[in-house]
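C-alpha cells incoming
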C-alpha cells in the first residue's frame, strides 16, 4: 500500500473517528485534539501497519490507547505528593476559618427566616437539616413520612421565596 492510498483510506475514516473520539472525551475540542494525535501517530507509524489487517481496527486501537495514556498522564499531573512529616498539606483543607462580616450577616438572615417559619414546618426542616432521616423525623413527631416530606418541601419553597436576594 502506497503512502497516498494509506492517507486516503485514513481520511475516509474521519467521520467514524470523530464519533468514537467524542464518545471517549464528551467534548468536541478534546475529540478534535484526539483525532489529530491519532492521525499523527498513524502516519508516523504507518510502516507498522499490515495491509492484510483491518485499518479501521488499527486506527481505533491507536485512538483508544492515546486517550488512555493522556488520561493516565493527567491523573498523575493532578496527584498531590506530600513529603511533610505529618502530611500537613493533605490534612490542611485549604479553607480558612475566618468569618467575614458579610457571611456573618448572611447567616443571621438565614436563621431569622428559618425561625419565622411555623413550628409544623420549621421543626421537620431543622431536623432534616441536622441529618435526621425522614423515617426518624416521622417517628419522633408522630407523623407519616409523606407529611414529613411535604412539610420539608414546603419549608424549602418558602425559604427560597423569602431569600430571593441571596440567590445568584
Amino acid at each position: 500500500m502506497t503512502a497516498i492510498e494509506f492517507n486516503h483510506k485514513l481520511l475516509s475514516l474521519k467521520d467514524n473517528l470523530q464519533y468514537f473520539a467524542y464518545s471517549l472525551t464528551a467534548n468536541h475540542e478534546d475529540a478534535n485534539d484526539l483525532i489529530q494525535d491519532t492521525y499523527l501517530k498513524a502516519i508516523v507509524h504507518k510502516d507498522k501497519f499490515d495491509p492484510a489487517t483491518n485499518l479501521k481496527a488499527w486506527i481505533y486501537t491507536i485512538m483508544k490507547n492515546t486517550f488512555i495514556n493522556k488520561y493516565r498522564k493527567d491523573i498523575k499531573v493532578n496527584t498531590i505528593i506530600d513529603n511533610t512529616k505529618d502530611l500537613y498539606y493533605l490534612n490542611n483543607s485549604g479553607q480558612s476559618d475566618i468569618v467575614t462580616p458579610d457571611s456573618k450577616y448572611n447567616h443571621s438572615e438565614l436563621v431569622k427566616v428559618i425561625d419565622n417559619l411555623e413550628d409544623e414546618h420549621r421543626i421537620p426542616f431543622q431536623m432534616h437539616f441536622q441529618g435526621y432521616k425522614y423515617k426518624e423525623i416521622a417517628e419522633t413527631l408522630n407523623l407519616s413520612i409523606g407529611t414529613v416530606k411535604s412539610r420539608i418541601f414546603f419549608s424549602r419553597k418558602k425559604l427560597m421565596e423569602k431569600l430571593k436576594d441571596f440567590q445568584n
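note: The mean pLDDT is 86.
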